[in-house]
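Task card 7
Instruction: Convert sequence to structure tokens.
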Amino acid sequence: MVRSLWTAATGMIAQQTNVDTIAHNLANVNTAGYKTEVAEFKSLLYQNLQTKTTTANGERKPISAQVGLGVRNSSITSIFKEGPFYESNSTSAFAIDGEGFFGVRTASGGVQYTRNGNFNWAVGNNGTLNLTTSDGLQVLDTRGRAISIPSNYKTSEVTITADGELCYPDASNNPQPMGITIGLFQFQNPAGLEKTSDSLFSVTAASGQAINEATTNLAIRKSEVVQGYIEGSNVQVVDEMVNLIVAQRAYEMNSKAIQASDDMMGQANQLRS
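Output:
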């Protein structure tokens, strides 16, 4: 196989992945808590044109004779830069100022994490009011328990402190702590989290175990919860459009390399002695 054909083909495949990633970012520009993804690439194996690069006299040359065999996608990394805050009319909308994540209980009983704080109050099977995501997943407190309040409480009067503690007004209309604090968790390597649907992330060996901000002894900057706001996507549309143009140009250049290789082989086949 002609090396240039295969090398250019790998470039087209890699740039297609790049375009797919950019398109996914643009599609989620209005998704709360979404984090920009960046496609990263690496060079494929190099082939030695000469096992020993030497001069005619047998002396070793300072530069080797190798040719690369293309490119491939090495990773798609999430950029966990904090997104802008947007005001919400919902009292159960929360944004995180810091590096923390909310913990939620999945349908299978596991725990996943999210920056999307667009929560709702839902009536549970036992009549209590549960704090849930838009998909009904229960939000966890600092002890890993699902957050619930008595059914006779008015959810519109529930407030929250910067530390994430839920409060409810007393007879004098003064907010009083309810003994419930929203759990906030950090990771040593957030980029190692496994991405799932609905802006949820799962723990992996690369991310490390979740660090509970309320109980950890590590010297970390603790996050703050802001009620009445939602963290928007950190996608920069202008940057993504520029990246899209660059990826498209790279795709075109690789296609032209394939065409050039095909023309060269055609000319070689037409040679006559």
